Amino acid sequence: MSEHWSGERPRYGKTIKVDNGLKAKSKRGDIGATWWSRRFIEVLESFGMGGRLTRGRTYARQGQVLSLSLSTSMVIALVQGSRPTPYKVRIAIKAFTTPEWQRIEHALAGKALYAAKLLAGEMPSDIETLFASLGLQLFPATQRELTMDCTCPDWEVPCKHLAAACYLLAESFDNDPFEILAWRGRSREDLLERLRTLRGTTRAAVAREEAPPLIRCLDTFWQKQTATSLTLGDPTAEVRADAVLDQLDAVPISVGRSNLVDLLRPAYLSLKRD
Fold first, then answer.
1. Which of 183, 207, 261, 274 has the maximum number of C-beta atoms within 10 A of its C-beta?
2. Which of 24-28, 104-108, 159-163, 164-168 has the lowest mean pLDDT?
3. Residue 199: how many other CB atoms lie within 10 Å
4. pLDDT of residue 252
5. Domain-wise residue ranges, the chain
6. How many CB atoms lie within 10 A of CB 174?
7. Residue 258 C-beta-side C-alpha neighbours within 13 Å
């Protein structure tokens, strides 16, 4: 925590007030408006930090935190205490490895709702279950998974300066759930790009399986077909006699004031009834 430990609790002067510090949005009660930010605070409190977090909560609401920045594995903050020079605090967590992130990205890409919720500023409620299925944990499970230090002379971990930074970190998770994932090693831009790539590859593969090119079906196109005679992604799917018209519909062709596809579709559908 500090090199100034002497075996006695250090004495502090009056806290130097800050005019333009970062203030917690919550003015009373608990800090954390979403389940994932509250989950982070609950994790810290489960480590036996409750009393020390309470002192930090006051600091966070008073605006004693001058700055807070988050990068892969590391959160760094400057907190004004009772000394003229602000204290520097660090909160570190182990980032997931590249192979671990590859497994996470494939799992997320398989669930379109996850990416949609993240983009909407919401952390999926069962995302911890997804991580657990991969043998990983999104939030730290033990105090050993977090490394905290502060330049203040207090030997407690966390001190009120660290605790204040933790509360503002939780509120940053409220504003953007991607911050949690960035702390673990994937920025918003990199993660979304990977998910778009993975989902695009999956869709292309499915599309190739679902609809064989028309040129491969010319010999049998006019024959009455069944689901078992086609190679489709879903073997129970209903065969549509007018499916070929969907390809023409992409480039509208007019006959007088009518669309050619609209004129042909009844005739194609009648083939199915015969």
1. 183
2. 24-28
3. 16
4. 53
5. 12-95+140-175, 97-135+179-206
6. 20
7. 7
